[in-house]
Amino acid sequence: MSNELKRGLEGVLVAESELSHVDGEVGRLVYRGHDIEELARGASYEEVLHLLWHGSLPTPAELEEFGAELAAERAVDDEVLATVRTLANAGDRPMAALRTAVSMLSAYDGESGDGDVLTEGAAITAKIPTILAAFERARQGEDPVAPDPELSHAGNFLYMLTGTEPDDVSEETFDMALTLHADHGLNASTFTALVIGSTMADVYSSVTGGIGALSGSLHGGANQDVMEMLREVDDSGKDPAEWAAEARDEGRRIPGFGHRVYKVKDPRANILEEKLRDLADSSGDRKWLEYTTAIESYLEEEGLVEKGIAPNVDFYSGSVYDAMGIPMDLYTPIFAMSRVGGWVAHVHEYQADNRLIRPRARYTGPETAEFVPLEER
Ligand SMILES: CC(=O)SCCNC(=O)CCNC(=O)[C@H](O)C(C)(C)COP(=O)(O)OP(=O)(O)OC[C@H]1O[C@@H](n2cnc3c(N)ncnc32)[C@H](O)[C@@H]1OP(=O)(O)O
Ligand SMILES: O=C([O-])CC(=O)C(=O)O
Predict the structure, then answer these.
(1) Domain boundaries along the sequence of the chain
(2) Which NCBIfam families does the entry link to (predicted)?
(3) Of the ligands numbered here, which is closest to the C-alpha atom of 249?
């Protein structure tokens, strides 16, 4: 047994996977061999789910069947929706509400609760948008909007959120964001889902754990942090580069920068930046675009990018969601709405040739210690 300690499991291979590959040196991401750029521009989120879960991009007939199966699972039990409402009234913590509601779904899974990872995973994936939209509606004092099975996964979410069918640009933009976030190798939340799945726990447990891991500021939580940073820059009245210089002097990390695997700019950040430019061109509102690009240019001049600390997917996503009028604290739950596809795919793949995941820690405590009874301490 090797005694070498790998802090943060950096570079450690723990599984084989055909699902996605991140080439951090050149900034390339593929899902089953397909470049993310092609999928983002040419495939819907439903097509990507089919690719991840069933091994290939669907034919039109397969897509119709698969899309209808997913759409049929969108309704969420009233008891779960009542809990979502309670949590929305309790405070602005949509990620915690989502985690709680997904966990609760396992008690109400009806026909989908047959223990099959893909069947249950499809039901969870279909229901997450309904849960999130209901949360947002409840905190606005509105009733939930029932899902529309005729709309796409992306379009239906925006419809349930606002009560109005989205225009084509919003639906395509949101669908693209879902595709971009669907999978990314063994990132922290997917690994969490895998550890849970490796005990042969149900997929509800894996997804609940995945949501918890994704919420942190070093992982999916960074997309909200980036928007908070942009607002802080705005409130400060400072030039964004000057603000970034001061933040660096204070030893602060810049959210949306740096990555364990990418040593260059994340390809998903390039796509989202381009999308943000399109949205800014059509709306004329260029503020967040100008702030983000100014911060990126400053950090590049400071040599961070050369050191491998470059923009990641979270750097531009929030500005895109903001341009679509989506509240800031829904950004990380929306990441979960997409990444659930990857969590389910990895658990399904891993369990086909399962081995319990159980690493070890190097013990650094004392060799022996004298036991003193409670009353003598
Ligand atoms: C979807 C996602 O999960 S993408 C990642 C989202 N998270 C963020 O954007 C949060 C900001 N980024 C970070 O905190 C990190 O870059 C992480 C957590 C993503 C990767 O962390 P690790 O691979 O463990 O790198 P680690 O934390 O060891 O940092 C290495 C060095 O880069 C520096 N660094 C890393 N990220 C940043 C940053 N955002 N801003 C400034 N410096 C940074 C560290 O200070 C450290 O410098 P040092 O060696 O001089 O001490
Ligand atoms: O791969 C990672 O470590 C983080 C990331 O970019 C993701 O999960 O999308």
Answers:
(1) 35-205+328-351, 222-323
(2) Cit_synth_Halo_CitZ, cit_synth_II
(3) 1
User: CATH code for 35-205+328-351?
Assistant: 1.10.580.10
Q: Is 314 a catalytic residue?
A: yes
Which tokens in the block code for residue 324? Answer: 């679509």
| Test site for ligand 1: of 9, 243, 312, 339, most ligand atoms within 8 A of the Cβ | 312
209 φψ region: left (φ > 0), alpha (ψ -120 to 50), beta (else)? alpha
**Phi then psi dihedrals of residue 23, to 5 deg:** -100, 100
Fold of 222-323: Cytochrome p450-Terp; domain 2 (1.10.230)
For residue 21, the ligand closest to its alpha carbon is 2
Using the atom order of ligand 1, give the atom closest to the CA of residue 266. Answer: 4
The model's pLDDT over 45-70, given as tens digits with 9 standing for 90+, comes to 999 999 999 999 999 999 999 999 99
From residue 49, alpha-carbon distances to 13, 89, 143, 280, 348 in Å are 25, 33, 30, 30, 13
pLDDT at 109 over 90: no
Q: Tell me the pLDDT tens digit for each residue of 73-89.
A: 999 999 999 999 999 99
Q: Which residues line ligand 2 (CB under 6 A)?
A: 184-185, 187, 259-261, 312-313
